[in-house]
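Sequence design from tokenized structure. All designs in this work follow the same two-part layout: the structure record, then the generated sequence. An example of the structure record is given first.
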């Protein structure tokens, strides 16, 4: 495997691990789901902006999102909608084949989420050098705000306050 491909795979795996760990923290999951469900913001894009800001300490280039990212996001949205309809139709607790079907739907959704994260890393990190410097919390907060604004549609004022809280939680975790 070539050095560039190896580094790219390390970045993808690193992003997935950091994003998964951060998502699992309270109240991060609730904030991210609120921003997704109530403001139609992409959890993957938000997590990527946080990670990218910390890892590379620069502003994301203003390049249009790749078609592969947009297609995968649309597929996740559609699958999530079908899964929620399925869950609404069959009340908990899930039994037998219904539980297995729900599990497979969640696994498919997770697989597509991973595909989006991979495409984000490949699309925006190629050729960049990971920063070894430590920057101030204020500088990191600025980078996060700028990078989220570049990757996500303009949120409402309500979403802004939740994004700011998310940013603070990220910075606290990194400190």
């Amino acid at each position: 495997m070539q050095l560039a491909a190896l580094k790219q795979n390390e970045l993808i795996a690193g992003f997935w691990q950091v994003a998964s760990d951060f998502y699992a923290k309270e109240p991060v999951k609730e904030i991210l789901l609120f921003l997704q469900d109530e403001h139609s913001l992409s959890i993957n894009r938000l997590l990527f902006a946080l990670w990218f800001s910390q890892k590379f300490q620069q502003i994301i280039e203003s390049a249009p999102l790749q078609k592969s990212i947009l297609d995968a996001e649309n597929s996740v949205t559609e699958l999530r909608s079908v899964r929620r309809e399925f869950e609404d139709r069959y009340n908990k607790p899930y039994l037998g084949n219904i539980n297995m079907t729900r599990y497979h739907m969640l696994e498919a959704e997770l697989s597509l989420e991973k595909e989006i994260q991979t495409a984000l890393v490949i699309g925006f990190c190629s050729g960049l050098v990971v920063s070894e410097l430590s920057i101030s919390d204020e500088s990191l907060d600025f980078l996060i705000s700028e990078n989220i604004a570049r990757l996500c549609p303009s949120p409402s004022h309500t979403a802004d306050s939740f994004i700011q809280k998310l940013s603070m939680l990220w910075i606290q975790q990194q400190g």
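The helical segments are 3-23, 28-39, 43-56, 67-89, 96-125, 137-151, 157-174. We note this feature because it recurs in several other targets discussed in the main text.
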